[in-house]
Design brief:
Strand content: 5-15%
Number of helices: 17
Distance between the termini: 79 Å
Helix content: 25-40%
CATH architecture of one domain: Alpha-Beta Barrel
CATH topology of one domain: Anaerobic Ribonucleotide-triphosphate Reductase Large Chain
Strand order of the largest sheet: 4-3-7
CATH class of one domain: Alpha Beta
Shape: elongated
Largest sheet: 3 strands, antiparallel
Number of strands: 14
């Protein structure tokens, strides 16, 4: 929430890392982390790249930063506080005030050494006035509910920020925002993201590549111990949550403690106004806005949504977003029912649609299995048969003329080839790129049911450079790379009968041994005179005194020389270049 064409560098702190085992918040460690992280963000402003020139200019002129935090919901739960309570909001306000106040104090100290941001001079008076408004708001936090040490540290930080800012200015026009922290919250092992409460004590996350991931709240045992439960009671409650996916009805759980474990969704939910009130409590201490979802039940009306926006406006919230449960066919997170099934927030369509899809999938799988048993047939509208995640593969090296490379063949569990990777020398060349694309195409075809014999029939005898001698004893000559590769694949994966039909045989198979019971005999000489026979040679008159050169018939199947590019000439079973002398083998 700043000027147009601007950006800010985001960073977030895991609040649970500063909650000591005795339940006290480590203020000094929190302040030290703010200084280090805020300074790092300030350094990044000048070193970063921006999508447009205008954004880069404004970002370097105003140097907006977005320091924030995650795991607030877990922090309140671990402290035995309900998210939707006056005490929970007082804690959140005090921690947020300390974070932004100390960040601005750090920015002012940096400005004392390096100067304020470029836009400070023209905005000095309103900028300092904003700091005073933040400071004054810190004295409005309920002292009876907020931790006294955190609140005093926050008020002192704002006094320091106003004092240093009035003397030196500030290095950054914006210091803090509260980002969603969805992905980095997972990376930081947070039970809750940003300023959010927990979505559910047990929730399921849909993965992009397919499947679900179960996420279990790890803060519940600590919260139960803080609330005075014994080890046996904690173990019993944990077992109940694990089995029923909910804490409602857990043995030994006292009713007055149920709000401590309330979540955004499920059967123990926080009222949607509780979300808005939490945003209103911390907004006076955030430079920018708050990225947060206000979860509303499925039966929320248009009037409820309208009133929610008006309440957010009255509380001074800069931005608000709502999500009505089950308003989309699919959503990334969902809770679970007590029987283990996903609740109404599940990522499924209606039962009729699901049944229809299941029927289609069953038919396609049956057709695919039938095709496998009856032989190598191409299935019309075939379903891709993916290889297992761990599969056996074979790799062989090859050389055709002056081109070397490697072929890796991944196999299904029954030994059928399912993917081909072809790497040739001279990486980065056009040939290498074409062979990579060719490999992907062949692999997809194999996985969709195209028989290997079909590829062999199409690609053997295809002729283009490089071609010539190979280093394979079974296949001595190749007319192209694909000719050699598919002859080699045929030898490795096709039966002899199939290869004979395709005309692909190894050297040993082409050299037929003498038939059994047939003795080699010399042809007898009959009526042959031992005297030499003389032949009279008649000298023909020549049209020229110079001898006429004998012309050789054009070699229509001769390849081009891979050294100089001229047409080669046959020499025995190989080819020789009459220009540079290069040979294709034994000549």
């Amino acid at each position: 929430m700043h000027i147009d064409n601007s950006a800010c560098n985001l960073a977030s702190l895991n609040l649970m890392k500063f909650l000591r085992n005795d339940g006290h918040f480590d203020i000094e460690a929190f302040k030290a982390a703010i200084e280090v992280l805020f300074t790092a963000q300030e350094i990044i402003v000048g070193a970063a790249d921006y999508p447009t020139k205008k954004i880069g200019e404004n970002s370097r002129k105003f140097r907006q930063l977005g320091l924030g935090y995650a795991n607030l919901g877990a922090l309140l739960m671990a402290s035995g506080l309900a998210y939707d309570s006056d005490a929970g909001r007082a804690w959140a306000a005090a921690i947020t005030a300390l974070m932004t106040g100390h960040a601005y104090a750090t920015s002012a100290r940096t400005a004392g050494r390096m100067g304020p941001h470029e836009g400070f001079a023209e905005n000095a008076e309103p900028m300092i006035n904003v700091l005073r408004m933040h400071r004054d708001a810190s004295y409005q936090i309920d002292e009876t509910l907020a931790p006294s040490d955190i609140l005093q540290a926050a008020q002192y930080a704002w006094e320091e920020a106003v004092d240093l800012g009035s003397r030196h200015g500030v290095r950054n026009a914006q210091a803090s925002v509260l980002a969603p922290t969805g992905t980095i919250g997972l990376l930081m092992d947070c039970d809750t993201t940003g300023i959010e409460p927990d979505l559910g004590l047990v929730k399921f996350k849909k993965l992009v590549g397919g499947g679900n991931m179960s996420i279990v709240n790890q803060t519940v045992p600590r919260a139960l111990h803080v609330l005075g439960y014994s080890d046996d009671e904690v173990a019993a409650i944990e077992a109940y949550i694990d089995e029923n996916k909910s804490i409602v009805g857990a043995p030994a759980l006292r009713p007055e403690h149920l709000p401590v474990f309330a979540c955004s969704m499920g059967d123990n939910t926080i009222h949607y106004l509780g979300h808005v009130k939490m945003m209103g409590a911390v907004q006076p201490f955030i430079s920018g806005a708050i990225s947060k979802t206000v979860n509303m039940p499925e039966d929320a009306t248009i009037e409820d949504v309208q009133n929610l926006h008006m309440d957010a406006w009255r509380l001074g919230v800069k931005a608000v977003a709502i999500y009505r449960d089950n308003c989309k066919v699919g959503q990334p997170l969902s809770t679970a029912k007590k029987d283990g099934e996903e609740s109404s927030s599940s990522v499924t369509a209606t039962d009729s649609v699901a049944a229809e899809l299941y029927t289609k999938i069953t038919k396609l799988e049956a057709a695919l299995e039938l095709a496998k048993t009856e032989g190598s047939h191409v299935l019309v509208g075939a379903v891709r048969e993916r290889l297992p995640r761990r599969r056996v593969s074979t790799t062989f090296a090859f050389r055709v003329a002056d081109c070397e490379g490697y072929v890796t063949v991944g196999e299904y569990e029954d030994g059928r080839p399912g993917e081909v990777f072809i790497k040739v020398s001279k990486q980065g060349s056009t040939l290498a790129g074409i062979m990579d694309a060719f490999s992907i195409s062949i692999s997809l075809g194999l996985q969709h049911g195209v028989p290997l014999a079909t590829y062999v029939r199409k690609y053997v005898n295809m002729k283009f450079e490089p071609s010539g001698m190979t280093d394979d004893a079974d296949l001595r000559i190749a007319t192209s790379l694909v000719d050699y590769i598919f002859r080699r694949l045929a030898l490795d994966y096709l039966s002899k009968d199939e290869r004979e039909e395709l005309g692909v045989l190894s050297t040993s198979e082409r050299i037929q041994p003498t038939l059994p019971e047939v003795a080699e005999q010399a042809t007898p000489s009959v009526g042959v005179s031992a005297q030499p026979t003389f032949i009279n040679v008649v000298e023909r008159p020549s049209t020229s005194e110079r001898p006429t050169l004998l012309s050789r018939e054009e070699q229509r199947d001769a390849p081009m020389c891979y050294q100089c590019g001229n047409a080669m000439q046959r020499a025995g079973s190989c080819y020789v270049c009459s220009s540079c002398g290069a040979t294709s083998g034994c000549s």
